Amino acid sequence: MGKGGPRPAEAKKSAPALRSLASVFMHADVADVVLMVLGLVGAMGDGMSTPVMLFITSRIFNDLGSGPGLLQEFSSKINENARNLVFLALGNWLMAFLEGYCWARTAERQASRMRERYLRAVLRQDVEYFDLKVGSTSEVITSVSNDSLVVQDVLSEKVPNFVMNCSMFLGSYAVGFALLWHLTLVALPSVLLLIIPGFMYGRILIGLARRIREQYTRPGAIAEQAVSSVRTVYSFVAERSTMAQFSAALQESARLGVKQGLAKGVAIGSNGITFAIWAFNVWYGSRLVMYHGYQGGTVFAVSAAIVVGGLALGSGLSNVKYFSEASSAAERVQEVILRVPKIDSESSAGDELANVAGEVEFKNVEFCYPSRPETPIFVSFNLRVPAGRTVALVGGSGSGKSTVIALLERFYDPSAGEVTLDGVDIRRLRLKWLRAQMGLVSQEPALFATSIRENILFGKEDATGEEIVAAAKAANAHNFISQLPQGYDTQASYLPHQPTTFAAGVCMQSFRWLHFSACFCVHTSTNNA
């Protein structure tokens, strides 16, 4: 059997790693590829500038050390090296600009595209996904903000920093071997000592920082619950116990913070190894000058290249941990983006009825919520609502009143039986078209952080100003809206939610056939309407 090829287990392990890293760049388009290529060139050029500077510096030191044998020749060499440093400065400025601008620009573009696709994918999911997969809305918000910020930070800073440091390492040791390979070869093992601080910072410190962030979620949750339920806290006189729970939750974070401080002190203090390596290079370099005729400027430049290259490699490798975190974040986002829900609101499949009368019927429907499969809500449920009829569903909490609306809106599908609209199973109808025929005012209405006018327009996007006013009058909301200083342009977050949301529902009536108001408390005048 041959021994040259990779083992199957290693190949399987490396393939997912490459795919995971590629997920960070999955939202790049052609323009982003161009920006990343230019940024890559800039990062490599930025990293190579230091080794080139050391190479020119070695020539300057050697010229200065040899003394002005011929004044004209000495001046010519000094002017040439000074001119080379000016060209190097201009080139380094250009490369650094490409590195900073291109990577920051493409990171912003890709992160924005990721956020847009993720939110579109979340809004595409069915209600079952939020019941089973998502513990709270904070998880969705966290993925939209934190995960995309992790990827953006890696693309804008960590990737160019890694490329720049690797380029500096390779360039420094290339200059070292080109100028004085004896000293470079002897000092090469010392690069391991220079990598240690970077690895310590990359593995221990970043790991502790992640644990601290995770630990802070517990006291954060306690504070969030206390503030959101502050009336309950006051009524039970639970301020002292809440503070005790919050303080106890912070103790673990404080303990991890002490560990982080100790690890950071050891990591930063270990940079003193640099001076030990310098001492060895100076001692060995002096012997090369005395017994082998090498020049002092060359020894200095090579010694500096060895130290700078080793530190650059250690700093570059510390970014590998960030790559892993960004890959995990990108995969979490991509998992949601690629998920196709059972009830797909973006699907164009399905029929559209030419004429809708509005007759609704539930035939032998059986249903239980996905989060509580052991608790049946409907068993052989039958209901027929003729077209044009107003029907009120009355019952205790948990009797299935809201479930009727949820099944009709196709938030869920029944496990048995069927729900029909004008005799057609609603599962055969195009979902967006079906929901466009219905208007719903929920029991606990929510308003968007915008004006009253725009909130009402959610009921009908192309409604005219007269239709908006008519809808508000039908919801008995026009009078109090007109008395506001800014009228319909007032921000809705400062207003009673029920009347304004009801106006949005009324605005649907001009073109929707089915209207639901799942509410137990409306405006007093509306209650008599």
Automatic annotation (TrEMBL):
CDD domains: ABC_6TM_Pgp_ABCB1_D1_like
Superkingdom of origin organism: Eukaryota
Compartment(s) of residence: Cell membrane; Endomembrane system
GO cellular component: endomembrane system; plasma membrane
Entry protein name: ABC transporter B family member 15
Protein family according to the UniProt entry: Belongs to the ABC transporter superfamily. ABCB family. Multidrug resistance exporter (TC 3.A.1.201) subfamily.
Pfam families given in the database record: ABC_membrane, ABC_tran
Keywords: ATP-binding, Glycoprotein, Membrane, Nucleotide-binding, Repeat, Transmembrane, Transmembrane helix, Transport
Topological type in the membrane: Multi-pass membrane protein
Lineage: Eukaryota, Viridiplantae, Streptophyta, Embryophyta, Tracheophyta
Keyword Cell inner membrane: no
Main location: membrane
Entry keyword annotation includes Cell division: no
Cited InterPro entries: ABC1_TM_dom (IPR011527), ABC1_TM_sf (IPR036640), ABC_transporter-like_ATP-bd (IPR003439), P-loop_NTPase (IPR027417)
GO function terms (MF aspect): ABC-type transporter activity; ATP binding; ATP hydrolysis activity
